[in-house]
Every structure is written in C-alpha cells, then in structure tokens.
Amino acid sequence: MRQSNRLVLGAALLLALLSCSQDAGTGPSTSNPPAGGSIFVNSIPSGAAITLDSRATGKTTPDTLKDVPTGAHTIALSLPSFADSTVTVTVSAGQVAGVLLALRSIVGSVFVASAPSGAAIALDGAATGKVTPDTLRNLAAGSHAITLSLGGFADSAVAVTVTAGGVASVSVALRSLASQYAGTWMGTTSQNLPVFFRVNSQGVVDSLTARLRLNFPTFTCTGTFPATPPIAINAARVDAVVGLPAVTNIGTTLHGTFSSATSVSGTYDGFSGSFFITCGSTFSVGTGSPLAAGTWQATRQGEATVALGRVVEPAWSVTWR
Questions:
Q1: What domains can be seen in the chain, in order of their start residue?
Q2: What would the pLDDT profile of 104-146 be if each residue is shown by its tens digit?
Q3: Which range (13-17, 57-61, 153-157, 241-245) has the least confidence?
Q4: Are 222 and 211 in contact (CB under 8 A)?
Q5: Could you give the CA distance from residue 168 to residue 162 in angstroms, rounded to a whole number?
C-alpha cells in the first residue's frame, strides 16, 4: 500500500515538472515591442503637402505620420509660392520624432500708385482688374512690366524687379493728353473775313472754317471754305486744306503757327487752276487765279470742354457779291 502511494506521487510530480518546462520554453509572449514610430510634421506657414520617402502621404502640415518603420526617412514639403523643402529624420521604435520647417517664399509683391489715382493696372501685358493704388501679390521673382492706363492721360509703362518675399513700390505721375491749345479759336484773314477752328483736348483740330473772297476777272464772290476734320496739330502747327463744297478745284491750304497757348497766326495759299462757279447770275468756266495768297490770325476764346467730337461752327452761309 505504501509502495503504490509513492508511485502515484512520483507520477504527479513528473507531470507538474513537464508542464512547467513547456510553459517556460514554448509559450506565447505577452509583451511584443512596437515595430515603428511616428513623425509629427509642421511648417511655417502651414498647409504644405507632406511627402515621405518620395511618396505622397495625402496629409498637409501640421499632421502626424504614424506606423513609420524605424530608421532614417526623408520628409519633403511643398506649398505654392514657396520653395520645396526637405529634411532627413530618424524614427525610433515607439517614439514620436518632430519636424518643423520654415518655408522660403519664392514670390513677392508690388505696390502700385499713380497721380492721379484710378489708373487701370496691367502686368506683363495682361489686365489685372485692379486700379491704383493697389498691391499685386504672388508675383514670381524677377523683372516685370507694369502699365497704367487712365482716360485723358498717356499710357505709362515702368519696369520693376520683384524679390522673393519682398514688396516693391511703383509710383507714376501720369502725363495728361490735354493739349495746351485746346479750346475755341476765332480770328480774321487779311481780307478782313472770319476764321474759326477748334482744338480738342487731344490736340486735334476737329472743325475749321475760313471765309475767303474770290476775285474773278468779271465778278467777286465770298464763300465759306470748310476743312475736312480731323487735322492734327504737328509741332505746334495747324495745316488745313479747305475748299468750297461741290466746286471743282477751288480751295487752299491754311498754315498756322501757335506763338502761345492763346495766339496763332499764319498764311493761306493762293489758288491757280481750272474752275467752274456760279455767282449770282454769272457762270464762269476757265483758268485763272480767283484766290490770292493772304494771311490770317486768331486767338483762343476759351478752354475746350469736350475731349472728343465735333462742334458746330458759326452759321456762316455762302454769300456772293
């Protein structure tokens, strides 16, 4: 009986030892270490797209990249108007690495002003939709052309150099297109007959009429000689070809020189050539010199109030005597 009890106890002890041996040598682990770490990525300014080892992550700063394998990795950030920026970071198991990059701007701005203000701003030949004063932003570094346009003033172009991250300044005094001769002018010829013309604000004679007396061998006629506008002023001169309507080859050219902004004087050419004309009951056809050369002068009566267009000259009608 005692012998059998000893055998049972020995067997139980052997089974217990085998069980402990299996638990110690082949049982599962209860504490696996993490396989990778994380990277917190931020930038100044924020909103930059994050690339990890040349692969887009779909994330923008600030954000955290998780489950990154341990070891060295390359973080690249990209943001419009800023230079791409890269950095190498080492990831440790179970740790969070940190990255903060200050991005470098590759664009600048230009503040544009004019005197007077309100001029439309064009950049490199394209309209911006802005008027002075205003600031053009996010311009690529380098040279640019700014053009300003305002009614009544000459377009003005200026070159400006934009530096990355900088603000350039442009201020332009616009040149008025208004002519110093603008206004209504009236005077007389050497025949003591009236001359009328008008200079608009752009320096164009847009209406001119002269009354001239024609002397024929057997009769004398006085007619209104209108010019066909516009007749541009060139180098402070006015030259206008005038003629009688519906009359062949009867006409002359008025030449004038402005001695000041209020005074002008000049000459008109004599006429020689074929003609036909009816003056009262007299009809004449032939060749002769019905108009002798002469002089004229005029003074400005007032400033032009309309920039463009015609004015109605005095109601001079053709008269014969």
A1: 36-102 (2.60.40.10), 107-173 (2.60.40.1120), 183-320 (2.40.128)
A2: 888 999 999 999 999 999 999 999 999 999 999 999 889 999 9
A3: 13-17
A4: yes
A5: 6
